């Protein structure tokens, strides 16, 4: 069990570091786009780059939000690991397959419950 816990902690740590790096990168890109938007004319109708900047900003905001949610999910997975419930499906109480945890370290649901409850996250 200790090795499983160590492996899970390592996977969660790596995933969190990767996601945090992505959040930092997206935040820097968003800041650049916002600065570019502020420096440009506010007349998007006649500015050929206006729509591009607005669309890029929208994409970055959405990606940043998804990445922040991912960080929250990873932090919740660390809590489950500390409380001994990591790898246990929150709906049926069964084990979450190791392959699923390899692919989605923050998974809360087993494959069966995830398929039956697609609105639930992971």
UniProtKB/TrEMBL annotation:
<dbReference type="InterPro" id="IPR020458">
    <property type="entry name" value="Znf_DskA_TraR_CS"/>
</dbReference>
<keyword id="KW-0862">Zinc</keyword>
<dbReference type="InterPro" id="IPR000962">
    <property type="entry name" value="Znf_DskA_TraR"/>
</dbReference>
<dbReference type="Pfam" id="PF01258">
    <property type="entry name" value="zf-dskA_traR"/>
</dbReference>
<keyword id="KW-0863">Zinc-finger</keyword>
<feature type="zinc finger region" description="dksA C4-type">
    <location>
        <begin position="89"/>
        <end position="113"/>
    </location>
</feature>
<keyword id="KW-0479">Metal-binding</keyword>
<feature type="domain" description="Zinc finger DksA/TraR C4-type">
    <location>
        <begin position="84"/>
        <end position="117"/>
    </location>
</feature>
<dbReference type="GO" id="GO:0008270">
    <property type="term" value="F:zinc ion binding"/>
</dbReference>
<protein>
    <submittedName>
        <fullName>General stress protein 16O</fullName>
    </submittedName>
</protein>
